[in-house]
Amino acid sequence: DGGPPPPPDGGVGCSRDSDCGTPSCRQLGADCVRSLPKCEMNRCGARIESMPGRTCDPVAGDCR
To answer: Helix or strand or coil: residue 37?
Structure first.
């Protein structure tokens, strides 16, 4: 059998948040939605935060 499918991060483990990429954001109406890469149990994921009334700075990848 082919075994289980590979994890979404391609099987690359992580040891810290910075291994998983850089923060990013997008504008959703009047809210800024920020995605923060997280390394949890050696796997990459992301924490999503919605920040009402803030503006996304796509260059910095952060809400202002």
So the answer is: strand
Q: What is the pLDDT of residues 23-57, one digit of tens each?
A: 999 999 999 999 999 999 999 999 999 999 999 99
Q: What is the Cα–Cα distance from 52 to 20, expressed in whole angstroms?
A: 26
What pTM was computed for the model?
0.70
Place of tokens 């260059």: 59
Compute the distance between CA of residue 25 and CA of residue 64 in angstroms, rounded to an integer: 10
C-beta of residue 11 within 8 angstroms of C-beta of residue 49? no
Contacts of 1 (CB under 8 A, 6+ apart): none
Burial label, 51 (beta-carbon count in 10 A; 0-12, 13-18, 19+): middle
